[in-house]
Amino acid sequence: MAEAVYHVDGELVPANEATVSVRDRGFMYGDAAFETLRVYGGTPFRWTAHADRLERTCETLGFAGAVPPATELRARVDETLAANDMTDAYLKLSVTRGVQPGKLTPDAAVDPTVVVMVSDLPRAGSEGERVWDGPAQLRTVDTERVSDTALPSGAKTHNYLNGILARLELRETGADEAVLCSAAGTLTEGAASNLFFVQEDTLRTPTAELPLLPGVTREVVLECARDLGVPVETGRYRLSALESATELFVTNSTWEVRPVTGVDGDEFAVGPVTNRLQRAFDERVERLY
Amino acid sequence: MAEAVYHVDGELVPANEATVSVRDRGFMYGDAAFETLRVYGGTPFRWTAHADRLERTCETLGFAGAVPPATELRARVDETLAANDMTDAYLKLSVTRGVQPGKLTPDAAVDPTVVVMVSDLPRAGSEGERVWDGPAQLRTVDTERVSDTALPSGAKTHNYLNGILARLELRETGADEAVLCSAAGTLTEGAASNLFFVQEDTLRTPTAELPLLPGVTREVVLECARDLGVPVETGRYRLSALESATELFVTNSTWEVRPVTGVDGDEFAVGPVTNRLQRAFDERVERLY
To answer: Does the CB of B275 have a partner CB in chain A at under 8 Å?
Structure first.
C-alpha cells in the first residue's frame, strides 16, 4: 500500500513528511481538540455529531471563533480521502491553538493548525469485517478518571495521558481495555470507549453527568436501542453492578459495538441484546454503501 | 536578533524549521515529559534536579528505559547553547514517546523524540533584570487541580490543559497567575508556579503530598530559607489562610522569586522575608558568573 497523504495546515503532504512546529501549542501542551471517525463507502459516519463535538471542545478551550467552519473542515476531510483514493478509512481530525508566543497563557489571536490523518480501514457495510480479532477483555485500573472540575469531561483533547496511564496498567494482563472509575468510585468509561451492560433486560450505561466523554457511537447505540424497543437506563453504577450483568460491551468509533467476555477474570457470554444492537448498527453502516 | 537554532531528534535546525511528526505521540496525546530551565552565564541552573525530575516523569510514563542518559541530554543542551552563542537563556527540554503504531496503548519499543528549544534571556547575576515587569496579581479560579490519582502530580508532562484552563479564567481580570485548589478545597499551586506565604514569621508552602508539582525553584527557596534561618512549614492550607499572611510570592524557573501584591483584590506589600529570599537566590545565580 502506498504511503498515505495527510492534510496539514491547508496542504496535502505525504504522511512521513507531515509535521507540526515544535512551537505549536498542540505539541507543547496538548492544547488541541480532535475527533476520530470511520469513513464507510466514502462517507464520514456521523459527521455532524463529530463536527459539533469538535466545535464544543474548541469552545471549552476558548478558541472556537478561530476554527474554520464545519463545511471547510469537511472539505479538507473529503480532499484527503480523494487524494488517497480511500472510501473506507479510519480518520483523525485535529485542530490546535497553533503557534503562539512562548507563554502558557493563550494569546487571543489564534491561527489554528488543522491536521487530517487517515489510514485505510475496510468495512463494506454489514458484511464487513470488524477491526477487533475477538471480544474485549476488560480490567479495572487504579488510575482514576480526571474529574470534570479539573478538565471538562465532554472535551476531546490532545491531553490523553489519563487514558494512556490506564492502558499502561494493562501491560502483561492480556486485557484490551481499562475500566476507569471516578474519585467517588463510580463506573465512568474505558480509556478510549464507553461502557454498556445489560441487567434485568435493561441496557444500562453511565450517565453523561459523570466525568466521561459521551461518544458518538454511544449515542448511535442508544438510538438503536430505542428503535429496537430495548429499555435503556443511564445512571450511576458501582463496579459491583457488573456482577449481576448478563451482557457487557464497549463502544467507540473504531470498535463500533465490541462485546466484552471478561472483566477482571469474571466471564461473560456474548448475549442477544448485544447481537441485536450490532445488527442495528450494521444496518446504519450499510445504508452508506 | 537572528532566529534561534533548536535541537530536534539529534539534529540542530533553525527554529522555524523545527518540527515533529503529526504521528508523534507528543503531538497526538501530549505523551511527553519536559523541563523548563534558566541558563545563567552559560550554565543550566540546577541541571541535576531538572534531569532527575525529567527521568522520574519518564518513569511515570513508562519509557524511562528508552530515554538517553542525562549526560547525553546535557550534551544536546550544551550543543544548542553553543550553536546559538547563548550564555543566558530560557530553555525547554522535551522527551516524547516518539512515533508509534496508531494505537492509544503505548508500544513497549520506544524511540523517543528529544527537543531542545531556547531563547535569549539576559540575567547577568545579582545585578540582572528580572523577567517580570512588576509583582504578580493572583486570582483564585474554579478550575480544580487535577488529582494525583488521575495523573501523578510530580510528573511534568505535555498534558498542560489544566493550567491553561486556569489561565483562561484570568482573561480580563488583569491577574498574572491563577491559584488552583484541590477537590478538597486545599491550596495547591499556581497554573505554572508554586505558592509561598509568610505568616507569623514562618514561611509556609503547600506540602508536596498534595496534588502539585514541587518545582526546582521551590526547592531552591526552601534551601535558601534554611540557610537564612527562616522557619519553614509545609502543610495543608485553605484559601482563608492567605487572609492573615503578611507576605506572598510565587516561584518557577522563569520568574524565580516573584512577589505577589494582590489575591482576588486583597492587597499585600512586598515584605522583608521575600526580599531576603530574593537576595539569597540572586547569590546562587551570581556564583555562575
So the answer is: no
Q: Which one of A105, A143, A171, A252 would you mutate to disrupt binding with B, by most B Cβ within 10 Å of its Cβ?
A: A105
Q: Which of A20, A104, A156 to mutate to test the interface with B (most CBs of B within 10 A)?
A: A104
pLDDT digits (tens, 9 = 90+) for A77-118: 999 999 999 999 999 999 999 999 889 999 999 999 999 999
Residues 6+ positions from B126 with CB-CB distance below 8 Å: B279, B282, B283, B285, B286
With CB atoms and an 8 Å threshold, state whether A106 touches B167: yes
Give me the domains of chain B, ranges plus CATH numbers: 5-120 (3.30.470.10), 136-288 (3.20.10.10)
Residue pLDDT, tens place only, B61-111:
999 999 999 999 999 999 999 999 999 999 999 999 999 988 999 999 999
For residue B48, the one-letter residue type is T
C-alpha cell recorded at residue B42 = 552559560
ipTM of the complex: 0.97
* Predicted pLDDT at A102: 84
Enumerate residues 6+ apart whose C-beta is below 8 A from B17. Answer: none
Residues of chain A with pLDDT under 50: none
pLDDT of residue A127: 87
Question: Would you say B37 and B152 are in contact if contact means Cβ atoms under 8 Å apart?
Answer: no
Q: pTM of the predicted model, to two decimals?
A: 0.97
Point out the residue among B144, B145, B150 whose CB comes nearest to the CB of A162.
B150
Nearest to A18 among B21, B143, B192 (CB): B21
- What the block records as the C-alpha cell of B37 is 530551565
Does the CA dihedral A149-A152-A154-A158 come out positive or negative? negative
C-alpha cell at A132: 477487533
Note whether A53 contacts B: Cβ–Cβ < 8 A: no
For an interface test with A, the pick among B105, B107, B110, B131 (most A C-beta atoms closer than 10 Å) comes out as B105
